[in-house]
Design a protein that fits this description.
Layout: E1 3-7, E2 16-18, E3 21-23, E4 31-38, E5 41-42, H1 48-55, E6 66-69, H2 70-85, H3 93-96, H4 103-115, H5 124-138, E7 153-158, E8 161-167, E9 172-173, E10 176-177, E11 183-189, H6 190-217, E12 224-225, H7 228-238, H8 241-247, H9 255-266
Amino acid sequence: MLFDFRFRPIEQVGAWGTPPDLSLSWFGLTDGYYRLQVGSENLFAYTEQISKHWATNDPAFSGASVDYYVVRLWEDVCAILPDVMEPIPSDFLRLVSGRNPAIRQVLQTVGTWWQGLADDEMAGENEEIYYAAITWASSRNLDSLYLRGGPRIWIFSHDDTVTIAWDNRGLEIDGIEVWSARCGSYSMSRSKFLEEIRSFDRRLLAQMQERVDQVCADWRRPEIHIDFEQLRIEQIERGQTLPLALRASPTSVDWERVQAALRKVANF
């Protein structure tokens, strides 16, 4: 199972706000744990060292899975799906595949070049070069900025293959590596990847339907306000998230321009 998750029990879900103004929404009710399992690697598993470090301040902390709102992972996957499904040229495969994908080093080189420009050079042709060199990758980057030292994960497709690449080398907090999955890539067929996303979508919506029904029928935390009607409406609306993502157009990319930018800045 590529996308694995479990919800925190309803009675343990934390409310938003401060007393007496506490509330919960559909988003908040997805509070739980999730994993991104690629082969033997869980891309959202913390290292044993950082888990022990954080547990000194929070004895309940466990690094086996990310503890956050499950819907956030689902939203972020759906957000990049149109670009993920748009194939990258063969020349770019060497950046994103293998045991040590080079994408992070290339993007780092581009960033260093950009930061090294004088203020008056960050415009015109140089600005166009910079955005051409990074946008193709950033539009396929799985957002994780909401996490402490969030992992670097990209998802690409080429022909009938989808590749997930990650490179968390150098991602440290207090001098300790954050993620157990350091660097690598994992590939599967396009049909298998879409099957995994549809499975994630079905399981999330089905389990949330159970939660919505339970909360609306018998809410036992009266100190926390919930708009029950809005909860029912959002449950229906959320059912359109994946279908809309599957029909959406990808970001337009001039690959020749991207190649020219990377040649100029990163010796691609």
